[in-house]
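User: Quick sanity check before I run a bigger batch. Here is a single chain. Can you write out its predicted 3D structure?
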Amino acid sequence: MNIVVLDYGVGNLFSIKCALERLGAIVHITPHLSKKMDFNGIILPGVGNFTHAAKHLTQNIEDIMNAVNKGLPTLGICLGMQLLFENSEEGYEDGLKLLSGKVLKLPKNLKTPHIGWNRIKIKKPHKIVEGVADNSWVYFIHSYYPKPNKSDICVAEVEYGITFPAIVAERNIFGTQFHPEKSGDVGNRILKNFLEFCKR
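Assistant: Done. Predicted structure follows.
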C-alpha cells in the first residue's frame, strides 16, 4: 500500500514515515502530488506555522482536491488537521477548505503550547476509532485548535481548559489534533484504521 506524506516545509516527517512503515505501508515523502503517482492515501503531517505551510500547499491544491474528490483517504495530523479547515488565527493564508470551520488560538489563560498527554473522549462510533477505548491517552503539542461549523464531524474531543475536537471525520477526510505517531499503541491503532480505509 502506497501512502504519500506531503512535505510542505514542516517538521515530523520522519516520525510519521516510520510509524506507517511499521504498519506495513510503503511511504513516499514528496512536496508534489502527481497524477502519474499510484497511491492509496494522503497524509498531511504537521509541526509548524499555518501560513508557511498553507503557502507551500498552494502549488498542490488542485491535485489534492482532485484526489480527495475521487475518494482518496486523507489524514491531517496536528497542523495538517488545521490545514483542512478554511482559515486560522495563526495567519492570513487560507486553508484547504476541505472542512467547514476555522482554527482558533488557545485562550490566553492557558499555558501554550499545549504539550503532553491528555485523554480523549469518544463522541460517536466511527471506524477511525475502532479498537480505541474511551478516555485513552494521546500526545498533543499545539497552540491552536479547530472549531468546525458542523459538530457532527467531531469523533472525539479533548479538554484542556476548553473542550475542542481531537479527531474529526467527514467522508474520506480525517484529522487528529494530537500526534498518533507519538501516542503509543492508541496512535498506532488509529493509523492502522486509516490504512484500512486506504485499502478499499
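The radius of gyration is 15 Å.

User: Great, the batch can go ahead then.
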